[in-house]
Structure of Tyrosine specific protein phosphatases domain-containing protein:
Amino acid sequence: MANVHAESEPPRQADEQRHAGDRNAGTATTAKNTDILFHVSLLYNLALQHDERRPWWSRVEPLLLLGALPLREKQHLHQLTQKEGVCAVVTMNQPSELLPNLFATPVSPEEWRDANVAQCFGATDDFSPPTIDTIRRCVAFIHTHVDMNGVTTYVHCKAGRGRSTVVVIAFLMQHRHMSLEDAIAFVKTKRPHVSLHPKQMRILRSFAEDLSTEQG
């Protein structure tokens, strides 16, 4: 039975509700721009993968894969489950990113569920860092499935460069006892095009400091 974890959105504050009408135009513009950026970025990923310049996913450890958003048209679900042996998946995308878009149809949570793949959701905006709580929850999920259950786990965002990389690096720090610098360098040997936003680096430093404090 697939395990599904979801992170709820924070409640809207009363003052935000009072001024929502004043911000509607700006919010709509932001949503539109974000949508455009998502499609441009996804098309770029598709082009690079078509030219075989970038693999859709990379094997970081024997049971741990890091990569991009799985797509129905590319038969990624079949490849990941039947050829790579994936039995668990960590999805760092926002729900809107999992909907059909102009260029492709992402593998849906329902399709993963029907394939008996355990799921963990760490919904995070693109180019943004996951929260510490989200990182901890996703790392615990990976540890359970990789180290305790011995099954292959796939960690992905849109391109497999930022959000998902944060989680994999955090896992390596906590459960492989690597320093932040060593974990980043190690992941880059497996997936050279990973790229962390400054905000994502800051959250990883905070995570590393928390680990250091906890470990004495």
